[in-house]
Amino acid sequence: MILRSMRSYMIEVKANKLSLDMSDWNPPLLALAIPLDIDDIHRSIYIARGLKIDRVDELAIDISTKFNPDLICIIIPEGVESGSFDRYVDLSLSILDGVGKPSIILAADSASSRSILEGIVEKAGEYELIIGPADMGNYRTYTALASIYTQNLLARSTTDINQAKQLIQLIVDTGFPIERITLDIASTGLGLGLEDTYNLIEQAKLLYGRGDPILSIPIVAFTWEAWDSFEVYLDDLSISRGMVWEMITASAYILSSVDIIVLLDPEVLLYARRLIGELSRREV
Amino acid sequence: MSRKVQPLQIYMLLPRRNCGRCGVTTCLAFAAKLTSGEATPDLCPFLTPQSKAKISALIMPPVRPIPISSLSSTIEVGGEEGLFRHDGGFRREARLAYTIDLLSNMYEVRSVVSRIDSIVMERMGLKLSIDLYLVDMSGVTQESMEDRLRIFRKYTCKPLILKADNFDAYLSALRLLEGEKPAIMIDTSLISLEKFMDVVSVKDYPIVLLAKDIDTLGELTARIEDAGIEKIILGIRYHGIGKLIRYTLGIRKRALEGDKRFSYPILVDLKDISDSYEGLAASIASLLRYSSIVILPRSMSRVFIEGLLIFKQSIYTDPRRPRIVNPGIYSIGSISRSAPIVVTSNYALTFDIVRRILEASGIGCWILVIDTGGLSVASAIGGGKFTARQIAEALQAYRDRVDIDRVPIIIPGLASSIKPELETLGFNIIVGPVKAKDLPILIKSLKYG
């Protein structure tokens, strides 16, 4: 799968087979989430990392410059008033242009959020993005959108390998090429069922290694739910704890042979990059 | 790659009386339980010692279980039999250990023990904490060692791993810890292994062999096995995360291939990692790549340890047996017949998250747990196990305790599609948030009662 930004910055995403010793392994691409609406948790994280938060497009450029993620992942909020539609589309395009990196764009589960995604994709003709998430309920809409504008698709399944395969098959049955699909198997964070997603990625990568063509697609894991874990807010150490929870989540995904990891805290990106470097090092 | 013993192989060695004394009705069912590790041969009162030995050998997992005990508790490490978590390869929980330097000032020792023992995370009905201590007696004089160890033992009763730079220190420590079975960690670059082989009393303790690579470890294991030592733990020194997982994977693969020299649990010694982040990454890698004991870095702070405790609990659950809570209705806080009902699945993790969030919010409400066979809400909906009919039937069973016709009944956001059907049955249905953390805001906004 090829992802491309406006400046012809191109990146290839390759699907890994399961590698327990991380040999014969494509290190995962690391993406940073850019939420178009910044909530209290995001604000606290960005302030703690010394980032400017007055404007989201400036924040995105600041994050990209300082932390250099492979990709960015724009998150469209759920409840958007109709009058704000154009503002969110323009903001997203401004981020895509300003950052100049291949991107994932995710809508929330609402019609207004999906409309904004459609607006962005319509105007982002030269980008090769990943858009989504397509699930059992809405995959026809997303598949049509990705087909019309020749974009890649993120399919999101429940925590069940057979349901994940079924979703991919349904998308492929519409005529959408499997080479342009990525999969998120309900990834979550530490304390919220990380072990179930780890299992499923391990299983999917093993099955791909054994020749299952449906699972030959890149798998994407999102770590930000680690910040939703109850234990993160036990006391006033929530920023440290959230960071550690997200680091643990990212570590598990890296060791599961996942292909793209979308992180929230830029500090976790530095940690993940270092771990990938350690795992990639080969003694002579 | 994992060993597969057929129940019929075991059945042929059983008395075949179908007496039921083992707790199951037939010998064949007992054989199946023995094969899956859910029963032990001791449960059969009619087994001959010879048959018992044969069965024990047949069902012995490729990684032998090794006990380490204090006077008050025993932990068992090892007992694993696979490579992959999704097919049950992580059967027996790994253990986290923290290092105590006995050479330190005893006030400092007490302070470290107090700090480490105070790290307790409550989750899924369990209290999670550090499992054992590595007591490093290196550099301590023989005279003061016994006093220091005696004082230290008053601070904590957790099982121990002992490490020393001379043989006599071990003997003194073992005398002092009479009745306990601590593990003995031997650095063969400092102490001759032969000394341990010659002392019969030492042979009954688990021996941790520390080596720099797998080949050296294999040689050491073969030597002490020949001397009759059977409780062995394979210790790996840390030389980077990449090397660490290649070694631990190599050991596990050899154990599964039947190489007896590697059929022991793995201990990974990370205590000297000074960088917290590297320590965290190495700990996660150790837990995901077959280490039964992880000696945590001394540099590791409370928050890092808390995260690891939760990670360890999460990763060491059997994915083939979903953790479930009993379906039914549970009260949270101060409740009445008119308190709202939050509906969720009987996947233990989901229930635990919902329960704790509601408890912390101080809201009085009911949680109605639906039998989804241990599936999460999302998976249960997809699999047709979280339906309007199930919820309606479950609600009817609690009509005497809750005013089910009037109170708000909050269904998970992911289950919004079943709202209309429940409403036609006369219930006051509210579609809740997708994430449990948003429940308190929703409930506080409702007018009821």
Please sum up the structure shown.
The complex is a heterodimer of chains A (284) and B (449). With 284 residues, chain A is α/β, with parallel strands linked by helices.
Explain what the structure shows.
The complex is a heterodimer of chains A (about 280) and B (about 450). With about 280 residues, chain A is an alpha/beta fold. Chain A has a domain at about 1-15 and about 25-125. Chain A is about 45% helix and about 15% strand. Chain A has nine helices and ten strands. An eight-stranded parallel β-sheet of chain A has the order 8-7-6-5-4-3-10-9. In chain A, strands 1-2 form a two-stranded antiparallel sheet. In chain A, α2 (about 55-65) runs parallel beside α3, α3 crosses α4 and α8 packs parallel to α9 (about 265-280). The longest helix of chain A has 18 residues, at about 240-255. Chain A is globular. The radius of gyration of chain B is 26 Å and the shape is globular. Chain B is an alpha/beta fold. Chain B folds into three domains: about 5-60, 3-methyladenine DNA Glycosylase II, Chain A, domain 3 (Orthogonal Bundle); about 65-315, Dihydropteroate synthase-like (TIM Barrel, Alpha-Beta Barrel), CATH 3.20.20.20; about 330-445, Rossmann fold, CATH 3.40.50.11600. In chain B, a hairpin with a 4-residue loop joins β1 (about 65-70) and β2. Chain B has helices spanning about 5-10, 25-35, 50-60, 105-115, 140-155, 165-175, 195-200, 215-225, 240-255, 275-290, 300-315, 350-360, 375-380, 390-395, 420-425, 440-445, and strands at about 65-70, 75, 95-100, 120-125, 125-130, 130-135, 160-165, 185, 205-210, 230-235, 265-270, 290-295, 330, 340-345, 365-370, 410, 430.
Layout: helices, strands, pairs:
The complex is a heterodimer of chains A (284) and B (449).
Chain A: E1 2-4, E2 10-12, E3 29-35, H1 40-48, H2 56-67, E4 71-75, H3 85-99, E5 103-106, H4 111-123, E6 130-134, H5 139-148, E7 152-157, H6 161-173, E8 181-185, H7 194-209, E9 220-222, H8 238-255, E10 260-263, H9 266-280
Parallel strand pairs in A: 3-4, 3-10, 4-5, 5-6, 6-7, 7-8, 9-10
Antiparallel strand pairs in A: 1-2
Chain B: H1 7-11, H2 27-36, H3 49-59, E1 66-69, E2 74-77, E3 95-101, H4 106-117, E4 121-123, E5 126-128, E6 132-136, H5 142-155, E7 160-163, H6 167-176, E8 183-187, H7 193-198, E9 207-211, H8 214-226, E10 232-237, H9 241-256, E11 266-269, H10 276-288, E12 291-295, H11 302-315, E13 328-332, E14 341-345, H12 348-361, E15 365-370, H13 377-382, H14 388-396, E16 408-411, H15 419-424, E17 428-431, H16 439-445
Parallel strand pairs in B: 3-6, 3-12, 6-7, 7-8, 8-9, 9-10, 10-11, 11-12, 14-15, 14-16, 16-17
Antiparallel strand pairs in B: 1-2, 4-5, 13-15
Helix pairs in contact in B: 4-5, 5-6, 9-10, 10-11
